[in-house]
Design goal:
This protein is of the alpha+beta class. The protein has helices spanning 32-40, 45-53, 65-79, 128-142, 156-159, 173-187, 191-207, 211-231, 287-297, 316-329, 343-358, 367-380, 432-449, 464-476, 511-543, and strands at 12-18, 23-29, 54-61, 86-87, 94-98, 107-111, 120-122, 241-247, 256-265, 268-278, 308-311, 336-339, 388-397, 400-410, 413-414, 420-423, 457-461, 485-489, 494-496. Strand 17, helix 14 (464-476) and strand 18 (485-489) form a beta-alpha-beta unit.
Length: 544
């Protein structure tokens, strides 16, 4: 490794280290020199934190881009750098191990397995109970040995009819190996193929009047079939596919995201596994980079993959980031990557997204909110990080019962006792801009009259027109210099500012944007709820 420049213009991995030698960030590139210089020139927001914090850069040249990609994943798992996306607790999940290097393999449940040519691993499983149950089913169905070491005489499982006693030569390695092969097919999700083989063997055994063997095969079919019914979610088709969905917490930036892996085998949904990832608080990566890191740290390490991997629709840069990982790690294993845009893949993506959304995110205040507020200060060039944020929205349907809402956030959290509702009094029809002007004027006129503190930031749900109307109201009260004002438009998640002809387009899942979206969505929810209540009251009055 080299500590100083010049960096090699070759593929490899680079490590930013802090003043105490800790690894701050691990990255890879086809050209180490060019990539590190990009960091030092502060191309993106995260680079500013690296440049402020790092003491030196180390380089590990590699022979190929794929080698760099794999080395990057290993170094991230080893050092868990602050500014990298990290898969949380990926080593604590249980695996099912088949000791295929032995003459008479054994099936068992293991944690923190060591990769070995003498054993085949399946997993990881998010549920230890599910994995343990599957081991028991396979042992009972295919009569594999339970003993860690082969004893010198038959054990109790042989006398119970649950083990063929390979220890004393009562079954040949070939016959035992066929049973293990079928168990592996089940672990690969190919239960339908196993069921057909068992049924054919049972029929032939019955024709040869080998009734004891036929009964054992019948029991194996029942065990595998029952387990399949307990685990699967039915849907048509015979595909083997995997679906990835990504979810962020609805509350202010928590420094986490969830990737859910939905596994489909023989047309059946056989599992939905949510995985929490730790994100750099200061600057959240794009969706493509987050999914790429999950593929690197978990998905590509699995022994059983679907023939197709479906991912959510992504922007151009995110698709390019993801393509790098899929081309290098999945294509050589015969896995194609497609966008889940329509039909059944889209429906399964929605199911995976629900699994991701229901996974509990790590929540908290303090430095996490502080990171979002500091990012907002830099993004909007504010005088200080905004602790007190107010959001305003208008709700109207066909010009009837128009209402406005105001929500207040302090420290990144809703302060619901400070929420306010406004019935639109001075505007008729569908003039949304005039309604925004009225609500802002009434809100800040009252704050002035009561000598209450002004917000550090005012957010309007809307675009340039709504921002202009709000700015006009603040100007009437001579507050345009005292209250920072922005609008957040839903369609493209663009930030509009008074007097700026071009909107800001920050990364939509950055901590700053997560906080703004939370304020905007909460103001919209509060407005719609009040509007619905007003309409119901008006309807009751008409009926009376």
């Amino acid at each position: 490794m080299a500590d100083t420049f010049p960096a090699p213009a070759t593929p490899g991995v680079y490590l930013f280290r802090g003043r105490e030698g800790e690894v701050l960030y691990v990255g890879k590139s086809t050209n180490l020199k060019r990539r590190v210089l990009d960091h030092l020139h502060v191309r993106v927001e995260k680079d500013a934190y690296l440049v402020e914090s790092y003491a030196r850069v180390e380089f590990v040249p590699t022979h190929s881009e794929r080698e760099a990609l794999l080395l990057e994943a290993n170094l991230i798992r080893e050092h868990r750098p602050r500014y990298n996306v990290l898969l949380k607790d990926d080593r604590s999940y249980p695996y099912i191990q088949v000791t295929t290097g032995e003459a008479f393999p054994r099936i068992s449940l293991v944690r923190r397995p060591r990769r070995s040519r003498k054993a085949t691993l399946f997993g990881p499983y998010t549920s230890a109970r599910e994995a343990r149950s599957l081991v028991w089913v396979l042992e009972d169905a295919f009569h594999t040995r339970r003993c860690v070491r082969l004893p010198k005489r038959e054990c109790i499982y042989y006398h119970m009819g649950l083990c063929p006693a390979p220890c004393t030569g009562k079954i040949s390695p070939e016959a035992y190996g066929e049973q293990v092969r079928r168990a592996i097919l089940v672990l690969q999700g190919r239960k339908g193929e196993v069921m057909r083989q068992l049924e054919e063997d049972m029929r032939r055994s019955a024709e040869r009047q080998e009734f004891e063997r036929a009964i054992l095969l019948r029991d194996a079919m029942a065990a595998v079939g029952n387990f399949k019914e307990r685990q699967r979610v039915s849907s048509p088709g015979k595909e083997n596919m995997d679906i990835l969905a990504l979810s962020f917490p609805r509350e202010t930036a928590t420094g986490t995201a969830t990737v859910a892996l939905l596994r489909v085998r023989d047309g059946q949904v056989v599992g939905a596994e949510p995985h929490a990832l730790t994100l750099p608080v200061e600057d959240t990566p794009g969706d493509g980079e987050i999914l790429s890191n999950y593929i690197l740290q978990d998905y590509s390490r699995r022994s059983s993959l679907g023939s197709v991997l479906y991912v959510p629709p992504l922007g151009e840069q995110d698709r390019q980031d993801l393509k790098e990982a899929t081309d290098l790690l999945l294509a050589e294993r015969g896995v194609e990557t497609w966008i889940a845009e329509r039909g059944r893949p889209k429906a399964l993506l929605e199911l995976a997204h629900k699994a991701a959304e229901t996974y509990p995110h790590v929540r908290g205040d303090g430095p996490l909110h502080g990171g979002a507020a500091a990012a907002l200060q830099r993004l909007l060039s504010l005088r200080a990080p905004p602790d007190h944020i107010e959001g305003i929205d208008i709700s109207i349907l066909q010009g009837v019962e128009a209402v406005g809402s105001l929500v207040v956030f302090r420290g990144g959290r809703p302060a619901k006792d400070e929420y306010r509702r406004f019935r639109i009094r001075e505007v008729e029809g569908m003039n949304d801009f005039a309604m925004v002007h009225e609500v802002v004027l009434r809100r800040f006129r009252r704050l002035q009259a009561e000598a209450k503190e002004l917000p550090d930031l005012l957010l309007i749900d809307g675009g340039a027109g709504q921002v202009s109307s709000a700015y006009g109201a603040l100007s009437e009260l001579h507050l345009e210099e005292d209250v920072p004002l922005i609008g957040l438009a839903k369609k493209e998640e663009e930030i509009y500012r008074p007097g700026a002809s071009v909107p800001l387009r920050p990364e939509r899942n950055s901590p700053a944007m997560l906080l703004l979206r939370h304020v905007r969505d909460e103001s919209h929810r509060f407005a719609v709820t009040y509007h619905r209540k007003r309409r119901q009251m008006a309807l009751r009055e008409e009926l009376q």
